[in-house]
């Protein structure tokens, strides 16, 4: 029994060490890499979801995180970098990070895009030093497969989130407790 506890503790410590590694030049993506990955991810999302394309045309800005890695064994975490697109141009770079605990095991890679539909949502992002999703303003998560019933005429929330390119095995996707912070690239 002690050996099992030791093995679990060792796995958790290794995972935490990997999550808490400081971002250095070797780990941080360049501005050009992030920009390229964001543009490609957004095009793929638009191909798979016409409602996302329609929202993109009406959005004040779009915050895209193309490559998020989520992993865990009892204790988990996720991290990714992305960019804010306004009027078709990248105007800032952001990171998304969260930690969780509970019954979980696995690793997953995915992306998500936040469509900021109002000036107040954009102001909130600009003024916050770190935005924890799940707090105001409200974010509506849209299932890409079921998004056919949503359009800019029926969409009345400030922010819509679309997940895409899910790969790997880990139960559930969510934004609650995720913190978004502006980064310099």
Describe what this molecule looks like in 3D.
The protein has 185 residues and is α+β, with helices and mostly antiparallel strands. It has one domain (28-183). It has four helices and six strands; from the N terminus they run αααββαββββ. Strands 1, 2, 3, 4, 5 and 6 form a six-stranded mixed beta sheet that branches. The longest helix is centred in the first third of the chain and has 18 residues, at 2-19. The model is unreliable at 19-26 (pLDDT under 50).
Order of helices and strands: HHHEEHEEEE
Number of domains: 1
Number of strands: 6
Largest sheet features: 6 strands, mixed
- Please bin the fraction of helical residues: 25-40%
Shape: globular
Question: Radius of gyration over alpha carbons?
Answer: 17 Å
Helical run tally: 4
Mean pLDDT, all residues: 79
Helices and strands, with pairings:
Layout lengths: L1 H18 L11 H18 L1 H9 L2 E26 L2 E28 L2 H9 L3 E2 L6 E4 L16 E11 L9 E5 L2
Parallel strand pairs: 4-5
Antiparallel strand pairs: 1-2, 2-5, 2-6, 3-6
Helix pairs in contact: 2-3
What's this model, at a glance?
By secondary structure, the chain is α+β, with helices and mostly antiparallel strands. It has one domain. It has 4 helices and 6 strands.
